[in-house]
């Protein structure tokens, strides 16, 4: 496995792969790799002979400097993790490599995506998704992948990236991976390392609430607001602060009602102590 830090060195390698007609599967990450990332890498191996993983903690998608500073960084372990899982290239660029003109000066805004990027996570974290769009666009330009794999845990992000690819006409296929969970049911996340053992067990309630709402909807109940309100109360009484708990249509994240047969998704964001956790559960 090659560990590459410079964009120019990566460009030379990608040029050689393309010249040899070797397709590339790409897994972009912010590091602190876990079994959720492993599943992305496994899918990548099914899609292409060349596997490129990136590790870049993107400053543009953090609303608070403290959150950026405290984001867990475990590069030594991540390198070993990628090597053990037969990654060909690990790309670990600096901020200057990704944003040579400066990060804010590089920020990309796509009005065509505003209906997806200004709600839920976008409303709670202003500028977050323009930061995601900016870095994914830049990484796609550098890596030139044939396939890119993203996790469904970040459901809204996945929809936005799919739409970005469509709007910007990138020739990359986006494949999603199901949410990988800890034994308790907590969705795997790099931020989970900041939770105490007690908090990890407590966080299992998130999935229980999602499953309860899904079961009620499958059973034919249509009072979605009553269901989500009850879920918010349960979580609040257990010490969570809830940013949102909603039932949306899968394709556009519009608030869903019981009057259509659209595929739906239940989306949630909560704070437990000072750690923000997101999750979702699809209803199809």
UniProtKB/TrEMBL annotation:
UniProt cross-references to Gene3D superfamilies, sorted A to Z: HUPs, Pantoate-beta-alanine ligase, C-terminal domain
Organism whose genome encodes this protein: hydrothermal vent metagenome
Protein name: pantoate--beta-alanine ligase (AMP-forming)
Family: Belongs to the pantothenate synthetase family.
GO annotation terms (biological process): pantothenate biosynthetic process
Annotated GO CC locations: cytosol
EC number: 6.3.2.1
Pathway named in the protein's UniProt entry: Cofactor biosynthesis; (R)-pantothenate biosynthesis; (R)-pantothenate from (R)-pantoate and beta-alanine: step 1/1
Record field: catalytic activity: (R)-pantoate + beta-alanine + ATP = (R)-pantothenate + AMP + diphosphate + H(+)
């Amino acid at each position: 496995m090659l560990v590459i830090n410079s964009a120019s060195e990566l460009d030379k390698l990608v040029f050689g792969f393309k010249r040899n007609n070797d397709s590339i599967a790409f897994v972009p990450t912010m590091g602190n790799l876990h079994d959720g990332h492993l599943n992305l890498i496994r899918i990548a191996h099914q899609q292409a002979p060349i596997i490129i993983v990136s590790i870049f903690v993107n400053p543009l998608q953090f609303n608070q400097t403290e959150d950026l500073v405290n984001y867990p960084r475990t590069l030594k372990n991540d390198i070993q993790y990628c090597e053990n899982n037969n990654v060909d290239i690990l790309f670990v660029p600096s901020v200057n490599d990704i944003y040579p003109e400066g990060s804010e000066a590089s920020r990309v805004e796509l009005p065509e995506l505003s209906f997806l990027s200004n709600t839920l996570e976008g409303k709670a974290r202003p500028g977050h998704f323009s930061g995601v769009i900016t870095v994914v666009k830049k990484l796609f330009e550098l890596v030139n992948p044939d396939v890119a794999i993203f996790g469904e845990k970040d459901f809204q992000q996945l929809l936005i990236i799919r739409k970005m690819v469509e709007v910007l006409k990138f020739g990359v296929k986006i494949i999603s991976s199901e949410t990988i969970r800890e034994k308790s049911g907590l969705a795997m996340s790099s931020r989970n390392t900041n939770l105490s053992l007690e908090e990890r067990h407590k966080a299992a309630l998130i999935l229980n609430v999602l499953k309860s709402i899904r079961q009620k909807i499958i059973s034919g109940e249509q009072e979605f607001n009553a269901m989500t309100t009850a879920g918010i109360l349960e979580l609040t009484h257990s010490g969570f602060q809830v940013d949102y708990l909603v039932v949306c249509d899968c394709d556009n994240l519009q608030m869903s009602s019981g009057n259509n047969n659209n595929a739906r998704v239940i989306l949630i964001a909560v704070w437990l102590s000072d750690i923000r956790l997101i999750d979702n559960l699809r209803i199809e």
